[in-house]
Amino acid sequence: MPSLLNPVIGLLMLRGVVTEAEPIAARMRRVRIEGDGLAGLDVRPGQQVRVLVGPGPTRRTYSLWRYDPFGAVELCVLDHAGAGPGAAWGRGVSVGAQVRLGRPEGSFTLRPDASHHVFVGEETASVAFGAMLAALPPEARISGCVETGTPADRLPLPHADRLDWPTRDERSLPDAVRRLAPEPGGVAYVAGEARTVQTVRRLLVRELGWDRRAVLTKPFWTPGRRGLE
Ligand SMILES: Cc1cc2nc3c(=O)[nH]c(=O)nc-3n(C[C@H](O)[C@H](O)[C@H](O)COP(=O)(O)OP(=O)(O)OC[C@H]3O[C@@H](n4cnc5c(N)ncnc54)[C@H](O)[C@@H]3O)c2cc1C
Q1: Looking at CB atoms within 10 Å, which of 44, 120, 149, 226 has the fewest?
Q2: Phi/psi class of residue 126: alpha, beta or left (left: φ > 0; alpha: ψ in -120 to 50)?
Q3: Ligand 1 environment, Cβ below 6 A
Q4: Structure confidence at residue 1 (pLDDT)
Q5: Local confidence band at 46 (pLDDT 50, 70, 90 cut-offs)
Q6: Confidence check: pLDDT of 116 > 60
Q7: How confident is the model over 199-211, as pLDDT tens digits?
Q8: Other Cβ atoms within 10 Å of 127 Cβ, number
Q9: pTM for this prediction
Q10: What is d(CA 188, CA 171) in angstroms, rounded to the nearest whole number?
Q11: Which domains does the chain carry?
């Protein structure tokens, strides 16, 4: 209900309409939002937007899966078991729905000049990884681990064949990173559940010798907390 929104925030928000909403993986829906105000934005691969998911002024943050500078953003929303307002919005939103969202923001973004790129995260993180991977040329050095509940939860990522795809019951994300043992010298992008992000960062720095400045981290959610940003 827009009337509950702080009027300043309301004015600053962008508007769009859903033109596509369909499953992209077993528990993920891809939502395409189009609008004149969405054209020509300054977007870097890996950035996110805050979406008004209701009821009232409730907002949740979603990575940009794709950006079309002619005026469209695409998000992928996970239908997780905790089912808060974000997951409910992603599950229920349909073509024709009006959407209000903030401008793209965030510094968890691709470092295009890195000598190699290592991606570590789970389903929610894989959305940002998709945008980052799409911006890398075929000759880029790419590796990483993307953990999902089942193989059906995997997003169709560019360069997917260069990544490891452990399922949760098969191997924990830290164990998968240990096994991959990425060489220091590049940039690591680590996102997803907050405590796992911290564990993976420590592992890269303490066990594998990475410079902590080369490990970019972003907590996306944590059990028991609602909407981290
Ligand atoms: C920078 C950033 C980018 C993000 N990008 C994406 C994205 O591209 N796609 C996406 O789906 N989400 C993304 N998220 C997470 C998203 O913002 C919401 O936190 C998520 O949709 C849950 O919101 P909710 O309202 O359903 O649950 P909330 O009300 O926020 O949380 C309720 C409970 O559900 C549980 N929970 C929350 N998220 C998960 C989860 N992923 N898996 C299992 N249990 C969970 C927790 O126990 C939590 O306490 C991103 C978050 C950030 C900060």
Answers
A1: 226
A2: alpha
A3: 48, 60-63, 76-78, 80-82, 84-87, 106, 124, 127, 218, 220-221, 223-229
A4: 43
A5: very high
A6: yes
A7: 999 999 999 999 9
A8: 28
A9: 0.95
A10: 20
A11: 2-101 (2.40.30.10), 117-221 (3.40.50.80)
